[in-house]
Amino acid sequence: MAADSSPLYYWDYLQLDRILDAQKPESAKRGVPAHDEMLFIVVHQAFELWFKQILHELDAVLKIMGGDTVAEKDVGRAVHALRRINEIQRLLIDQLGVLETMTPLDFLDFRDDLVPASGFQSVQFRIIENRLGLRPRHRLKIKGAAYTDVLSTEHGDLVHGTEEETSLLDHVGQWLERTPFVSFGDFDFWRAYRGAVDEMLARDRRIVETHPNIDAEERAVQLARFDEMTTTFTALFDRGRWEELQQQGRRRLSHRAILAALLINLYRDEPIFHMPFRFLTGLIDIDEGFTAWRQRHALMAHRMIGGRIGTGGTSGHGYLEAAARKHRIFSDLFDLPTYFIPRSALPELPSDVRNQLGFRYAQNP
Ligand code: HEM
Q1: Class for the domain spanning 24-357
Q2: pTM of the model as a whole
Q3: Ligand 1 center to residue 28 CA distance, Å?
Q4: Fewer CB near the terminus (10 Å): N or C of the chain?
Q5: Separation of 240 CA from ligand 1 center, angstroms?
């Protein structure tokens, strides 16, 4: 029942007057209606509606993670919101297939009418990127221009405002830094872990050195790769080196945060780490979802416009492919498996530490 007590009417509730009256093809205004422009508009509008829903979910996650303390059950709610975003992303990728039923020649019937408008001006997409943690210094430079130069003043201000907010990446970093158990009192976990890693690396190195099927040239390549991996491990155990990498923009999470993320992954079978593990996995899923969407969109742009520049003025598919590579947010989490060792090689935790990590249920008297 509506607030004024007249029965709620479907058409009014969804404001279909406004939504269904919002498709105004430019080609028709020119007097040469292009059949496929309707599809082009509807697909873009559907995208923007889904971006709105993604922002709605993302804001809920930001609110949860932005608290001084984050309760376990709230992490569960954040996991659920991330999962919903991920399902929407799948849908968005699939929608591009519908748009690709429009051929490049069909697109040419109205493409010039669109210049200089472009998805490049999608305000909601920029806000999503900024809220996730993409900062201007991490963005591709386009002929020295800021990504907001193509927006109206009002929209430019709105998007710039979101650059100043604490992003999801920031919140996740702070939350990880607060994770207890990164040090275990008397038990020096990291010394034990490093010992296990060194053993694993030494074993793997011996295999490369003595493997009968590897010739001298290949052996040299493999050994060089090993040395590189060892250097990465060293940074993990050397806070100063890690901070250098951070300053160079090669790492985004702090040293303490990455150690906590590593611990959560390695000991995810411990009940207390289940939910944090699922949350970190959810972040990887949505980062992958946006990267997959960007790559798919770049491919679609390539087949639609070939080597032409975009209506927004970038190099076209070349720009989009480079953005898909560069505009990742949670790369630190993607790189984490470099530091994994098999469960069987993990240091055995002392029993008092194990007890702290597990949930214990007191028997009712
Ligand atoms: C025929 C279909 C499409 C083509 C050929 C195309 C092409 C392009 C190109 C070339 C760019 C780079 C900017 C420029 O120079 O214009 C771009 C950016 C963008 N497009 Fe599309 N696009 C298409 C459909 C879509 C759809 C359906 C969406 C959904 C909202 C979309 C969203 C975006 C976004 C968000 C950007 C900015 C990406 C970034 O800067 O990382 N595009 N598009």
Answers
A1: mainly alpha
A2: 0.92
A3: 22
A4: C
A5: 41
